[in-house]
Design brief:
Blueprint lengths: L2 H22 L4 H32 L15 H11 L3 H5 L12 H7 L7 E5 L2 E5 L2 H15 L18 H11 L11 H20 L10 H11 L4 E5 L6 H16 L4 H5 L2 E5 L4 H12 L5 E2 L18 E6 L30 H10 L1 E12 L10 H10 L3 E6 L12 E7 L5 E2 L5 E2 L5 E6 L5 E2 L5 E2 L2 H16 L15 E5 H6 L7 H4 L11 H32 L5
Helix pairs in contact: 1-2, 1-7, 1-8, 2-8, 9-10, 9-15
Length: 567
């Protein structure tokens, strides 16, 4: 990104967080997150609507366009009336994938009438008088209008403003502040700007909400690494714990980049992707749907927010790509789940930890040639308690595990638990995948990558990956899968970083999948030597050094005595 673009976005971030501060003193983070993001959504769709209006006006005045209105056919007054009528034709907007907005849902209407409805007022809307009781009611009415005229958004927008216990003048100030947010730039398109806005705001809200906030947000760099490795270029994409839809957003960006590299139309390519998701939390489910709508992505998030364990929204789905960051080490997940549930083919997960329940749910919904990736706590790679070791052994022996990536600490806003990424597939045979890569036969092999030393500290608390870090890991993975160079990188084992291990080697390590055991990490990290063995070795070494020290001390005393000195 150019420096001017970076500066533009940085200034935008400051303005956005100032907007959030308008509400911070009176609402908790979970409430003002949705209040601010909801208004930003209205501003964005209003700007897109207004931009399309200007395009229509230009078309109506262009003699070479099919929409042209010849001034010779109308009086000046008639022409103005005809243009006004044409600007209200819904089809002109929907044909360009722009949301149609009724009058009360347009940003200018909110701005003009916000001061008038503090304390309540009667407003005339399209010839009808409607009583608006507050600024919050004005915003909710705008959201209801958007939902009413855009079925894709039915039940998606969070109409909560009337119920906010907040000074109405503060809410009106927020409208005026968000009005200054520009969704146009000479070299950045509006969706890119909005995407940056949402990514930034979700990250900031996750920090503000602490542990609870991380439930809906996975750091963008981790999501990008998974997407670059799994390459969801064409087919069905599924996230059973989707939060705000970060994996779908990054998949959309990946498709754009790859389509441009292949010199094919990104919009045409996006039509070859089907998005499926599920989320238990209602407001987060709404946020994810809004996230898709602003990017023009078709999606199926089921009939309602629901538990992935007890109310599966896509029971017959067999997805080509599954990506997820489920809650780490989730307890009591199995309430209401049948002990004979067919999803748990490789063993019954313990009630006290859902890690292998998530993994097997995903495998159950994975297509025969599909690939899946999920973030889990590090304990999933080595734990042997309550059947976890048995399940992991079954996954390995059935040759489902393709790659393990150990991540650095301090990547998450909501937890310090060390994490890893599991990549699994049901088919390791030689074939061409959906991204067009010719894969070699990888049966009986697992790639281990120790990425714990990658990244940088973006502040005193959080670590992040650079684009180079992400590409280094992704290119290495694809070079291993294909057996040919990828972006100048040919795969070879690198001590302390990566190792292609056989199932026989993994069996010798008692089916533990910690990358440090295989790549040759330093002892301080994980060299597979037990604590007892290390202590015995170190104690023996220390005894030798003590004995050597005593010998040297006696020699020194003897030499000093020869010089006439005594200690």
């Amino acid at each position: 990104m150019k420096q001017a673009e970076q500066q533009f976005l940085k200034e935008l971030e400051g303005k956005l967080w100032n907007a959030a501060d308008k509400l911070r003193s009176t609402l908790d983070a979970a409430q003002y997150k949705h209040a601010v993001l909801g208004l930003i959504f209205v501003k964005y769709v209003s700007d897109a609507f207004k931009l399309r209006q200007e395009e229509i006006k230009a078309d109506l005045a262009n003699p070479e366009h099919e929409y042209y209105l010849d001034p010779a056919d109308f009086s000046e007054e008639e022409l103005a009336q005809e243009i006004a009528i044409e600007l209200e034709q819904r089809d002109f907007y929907t044909e360009k994938n722009v949301f149609w907005l009724p009058t009360e849902s347009r940003w200018q209407f909110l701005q003009d009438n916000g001061p008038l409805v503090i304390g309540g007022a009667d407003l005339e809307i399209d010839g009808k008088v409607k009583k608006i009781t507050s600024v919050g009611h004005l915003i909710d009415n705008a959201l209801e209008g958007i939902e009413r005229d855009n079925q894709k958004l039915k039940g998606v927008l969070n109409k909560l403003y009337s119920g906010l216990k907040i000074d109405q003048s503060k809410l009106n100030e927020l409208i005026n502040l968000i009005a200054t947010i520009p969704f146009d730039h000479k070299s950045l398109n509006s969706k890119d700007i909005l995407g940056h806005v949402y990514e930034y705001m979700l990250g900031q809200f996750a920090l503000a909400e602490g542990k609870r906030g991380g439930a809906f947000y996975t750091p963008a760099s981790i999501v990008s690494m998974i997407v670059e490795m799994i390459e969801p270029f064409e087919g069905r994409v599924y996230d059973p714990a989707m939060g705000s839809g970060g994996f779908f957003v990054q998949s959309d960006k990946f498709i754009e980049r790859r389509a441009n590299q292949k010199e094919i139309d990104p919009l045409t390519q996006k039509q070859k992707i089907s998005i499926y998701g599920q989320e238990y939390n209602h407001t987060t489910w709404q946020l994810a749907a809004m996230n898709m709508a602003i990017r023009g992505l078709d999606y199926d998030f089921g009939k309602e927010p629901a538990s992935t364990y007890t109310n599966v929204q896509h029971p017959d789905l067999r997805a080509d790509f599954i990506m997820a960051n489920p809650p780490f080490n989730m307890k009591e997940w199995n309430t209401g789940v049948d002990d004979n549930d067919p999803r748990f083919k490789y063993g019954q997960p313990p009630a006290g930890n859902a890690n292998f329940a998530w993994m097997q749910h995903m495998l159950h919904h994975l297509s025969a040639d599909g690939s899946q990736a999920l973030l889990l706590a590090n304990g999933s790679m080595s734990s042997t308690t309550n059947n976890e070791g048995t399940i992991r052994q079954a996954l390995i022996e059935n040759d489902l595990v393709e790659c393990m990536v150990a991540l650095p600490g301090q990547l998450f806003t909501n937890t310090q638990i060390p994490a890893c990424i599991w990549f699994l597939t049901k088919n390791k045979t030689a074939r061409t995948d959906k991204a067009g890569r010719k894969l070699r036969d990888r049966k009986g092999e697992v790639l281990f990558i120790d990425a714990r030393n990658l990244g940088y500290m973006k502040d005193r608390v959080l670590r992040d990956f650079t684009r180079d870090d992400i590409e280094k890991v992704a290119d290495l993975y694809h070079a291993w899968k294909t057996g040919v160079e990828v972006n100048g990188i040919a795969y070879e084992d690198q001590a302390g970083f990566c190792k292609s291990a056989t199932l026989e080697e993994i069996t010798k390590h008692d089916f533990v999948l910690t990358p440090g055991r295989y790549v040759g990490a330093t002892e301080e990290l994980d060299d597979g030597i037990s604590f007892g063995e290390k202590m015995a070795t170190l104690t023996a070494k220390l005894s030798e050094q003590f004995a050597e020290s005593a010998t040297l001390e006696a020699e020194i005393k003897k030499n000093l005595a020869g010089l006439g000195y005594e200690l």
